[in-house]
Design a protein that fits this description.
By secondary structure, the chain is mainly α. It has 4 helices and no strands.
Length: 83
């Protein structure tokens, strides 16, 4: 029985490919290792739960990841929220 859903391993592989980029963006914004790790984890969890995660191209996922990381970074940093 074939389905359009991607397997757990494929989902995990996509998330692992996005993880360094997510952390890099978050660290650039937050300038803090722990806060960047937390923001990138939150964004990775959010992107993994989106319906479009299965069908987006790598470029589209990277763009969406950047948006989510910026949003989660702003939410986690009182300093960033003032900007």
């Amino acid at each position: 029985m074939m389905t359009n859903a991607i397997s757990f391993q494929q989902r995990l592989q996509k998330l692992r490919a996005l993880e360094p980029y997510a952390y890099q963006v978050a660290h650039y914004l937050l300038q803090d290792d722990a806060a960047a790790a937390e923001a990138s984890q939150t964004a990775l969890l959010e992107i993994s739960q989106q319906d479009s995660f299965q069908t987006e191209t790598p470029e589209q996922l990277r763009s969406l990841m950047k948006k989510l990381v910026i949003r989660t970074s702003l939410a986690k940093s009182p300093r960033m929220a003032q900007i």
